[in-house]
């Protein structure tokens, strides 16, 4: 039978799933990941605390493990992420830096990591979650130390290290039209006007039934495509208050179908990545207590209504 990725490929898109390193030892899980999907993203393996645990000391063990799995199973890899306010190493967060010092630290990190994965990843989430929900810049260590110019700097340094890799910004709560996605619209417009290398915007798509479906998803994707960047769902999961029941699972299935159709309706929506594909391995229950059942396969790796809704949409 055709896989989700086979069906997506008929539209010139990919269908992927993130994976965290320990999950590769779950052989049933890894087998289905390798056969059903066409792309993967390391859930944690390429974050700063993993790749540069001591200043100037780089460790690519985890990222390389996922790249090797991906190569063995013909999956594309999205690199995630060069810069984020979470999962930074202690050496970086536990002291104060001057702007020039932190700029040098960021440049060295980006140059090293992007150079290492040149030709191995097709895209990088260069900067992750840099906006607040109200559309103001998040006051992360880079913003407060360097100022807003750190974003353009990071994109330029990534481009220097690999002129071919696609460079993305990536965030949550931007799937629909609203203050936060408007802020990205203005930022990308400005970056483009200044000739800063920016190729895409990643919509994490961490949705929750209890918050309602985001507004005007297709129009939102389209307005970014019209600015001249690719768009993608990069971390899709649709959680619910536990326990799940047939009504919630049907609504979840409907939402997965709607997201898939919105992406297919926009030519520059290049693909969809789930943040893990089964309820067996999902970040949701540990971060949102009482919530879960967010993925199209259940904890026994059996397809849920959401899986059939995605197939139907593709
Ligand atoms: C999550 C991982 O899945 C967890 O294992 C980790 O403990 C925390 O980070 N947005 C992102 C991802 O961009 O990197 C996050 O991944 C989920 C939210």
Low-confidence stretches: none
Strand elements, count:
10
Q: What name is given to the CATH topology?
A: TIM Barrel
**Gross geometry:** globular
The overall pLDDT, averaged over residues, is 98
Describe this structure as you would to a colleague.
It is a single chain. With 314 residues, the chain is α/β, with parallel strands linked by helices. It has a single domain (4-313), classed as Alpha-Beta Barrel (TIM Barrel). It has 13 helices and ten strands. The chain has an eight-stranded parallel barrel with strand order 1-2-3-4-5-6-8-9, surrounded by four helices. Helix 11 (246-264) packs parallel to helix 13. The radius of gyration is 19 Å and the shape is globular. Bound molecules: (3S,4R)-3-hydroxy-2-oxopiperidin-4-yl beta-D-xylopyranoside. (3S,4R)-3-hydroxy-2-oxopiperidin-4-yl beta-D-xylopyranoside is lined by residues 20, 43-44, 128, 204, 235, 283. It comes from Streptomyces beihaiensis. Keywords: Carbohydrate metabolism, Glycosidase, Hydrolase, Polysaccharide degradation, Signal, Xylan degradation. It catalyses: Endohydrolysis of (1->4)-beta-D-xylosidic linkages in xylans. Its EC number is 3.2.1.8.
């Amino acid at each position: 039978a055709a896989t989700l990725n086979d069906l997506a490929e008929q539209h010139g898109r990919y269908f992927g799933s993130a994976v965290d390193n320990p999950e590769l030892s779950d052989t049933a899980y890894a087998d289905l990941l390798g056969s059903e999907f066409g792309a993967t993203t390391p859930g944690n393996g390429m974050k700063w605390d993993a790749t540069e645990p001591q200043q100037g000391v780089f460790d690519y063990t985890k990222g390389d493990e996922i790249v090797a799995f991906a190569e063995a199973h013909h999956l594309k890899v999205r690199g995630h992420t060069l810069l984020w306010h979470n999962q930074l190493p202690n050496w970086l967060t536990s002291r104060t830096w001057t702007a020039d010092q932190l700029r040098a630290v960021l440049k060295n990190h980006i140059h090293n990591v992007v150079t290492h994965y040149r030709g191995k990843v097709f895209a990088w989430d260069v900067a992750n979650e840099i906006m607040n929900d109200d559309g103001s810049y998040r006051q992360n260590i880079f913003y407060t130390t360097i100022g807003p110019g750190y974003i353009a700097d990071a994109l330029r340094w990534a481009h220097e290290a690999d002129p071919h890799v696609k460079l993305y910004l990536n965030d949550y709560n931007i799937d629909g039209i609203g203050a936060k996605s408007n802020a990205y619209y203005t930022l990308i417009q400005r970056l483009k006007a200044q000739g800063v290398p920016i190729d895409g915007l990643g919509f994490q798509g961490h949705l929750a039934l209890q918050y309602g479906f985001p507004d005007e998803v297709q129009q939102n994707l389209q307005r970014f495509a019209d600015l001249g960047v690719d768009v993608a769902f990069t971390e899709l999961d649709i959680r619910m208050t536990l326990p799940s029941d047939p009504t919630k699972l049907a609504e979840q299935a409907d939402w997965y179908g709607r997201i898939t159709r919105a992406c297919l309706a926009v030519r520059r929506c290049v693909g969809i990545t789930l943040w893990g594909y089964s309820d067996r391995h999902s970040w949701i229950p540990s971060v949102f207590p009482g919530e879960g059942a967010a993925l199209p396969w259940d904890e026994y790796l059996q397809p849920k209504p959401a899986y059939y809704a995605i197939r139907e949409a593709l």
